[in-house]
Design goal:
The protein is mainly α and 202 residues long. The protein contains 8 helices and no strands. Helix content is 78%, strand content 0%.
Amino acid sequence: MSSVDLEGVRRPAAAVLVSAGVWLAGISPVPGVYTEPDSARRLEMLRRGKRSWVVGQHIAAAGTAAVPAAFARVALALPPGKPRVFATAAAVALAAGAPLFVSQLALRASDLERFAERRLPGWPFLAYSWLHVLALGSLCGALVFLPGRGKEAAAVGLAALGSGAILARTGDIPPFVFYVSEQLAAVSLLRRVDQAHPQRLA
């Protein structure tokens, strides 16, 4: 790992953490709306918290767009070889999925009734979710080929397998699972660099 540019990896990996945190902060500004089974009650909750809901969707959209860009920078900062190939695959999958979910967030913000009644098109979210499963699998591959990251690779790989199994069975999954797992991968990258160059962290 001596060929890794310390700052070149640390900054985008930290940006992944921040971007995913932005997504997590914006995605649920109206507590309980995702788990409420009654559509009329969901609509009432959304109308009561409309300002927070709309702002939250914009914040989540910003996080959705920022995460793949940060992972692309991570991939470029890694040394040539399998870690870079897998990280690049993850960034490409995330970049392909981001517009699909951003479009869903726009509809959620602009059409409360359709969202409350669960009448929004389902295929963009499903495609976005499968692309995230692919991204998690690719991040697992990147971590496998970085020394000392077996545990994190296993955790991210299990998240990919578990998410894929749930998605295949139910057609739905809370997307926060993806972002938390991607944060774990980013933390692992930070730790890998920190351990590789302890003398430069003083």
